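Why does residue order matter? Because the sequence determines the fold. Keep that principle in mind as you read this record.
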Amino acid sequence: MSEVLQPPGWKRPRGYANGIATSSGRQVFIAGQIGWTAEEIFEAHDLAGQMRQALANVVTVLAEAGGKPEHVAQLTCFLTDKKRFLAEGKACGEAHRAIFGKHYPATTMVEVTALMHDQALIEIAAIAVIPER
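Structure:
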């Protein structure tokens, strides 16, 4: 079970949480996932499409540990173009909700000059805590 940390008087963030607290469970650390398929093919060439695929990849890895999207406590997103993210914000939000529903982990977004794969526009790493049964 996780708890969203929202300090009193702070404006509620849109699309992420300031913090998440968990009491116990199995910790899962997921390496950066990019927007390609299991066959390492980039089907999407837009940021929102690659974001959706990268988040789906995170969830697929998490499922190997018995986890679900709501168990993700933290996401770290590396973007190659901040302006592109701001321009595609609505579509990126839709991509997030398509995979995570209304679960908004503590999220950090960082603009980087490049990712290891030239076609990649975003890379997402995650930390999840799966509750004890």
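The beta strands are 2-5, 19-22, 26-34, 72-79, 106-111, 122-130.
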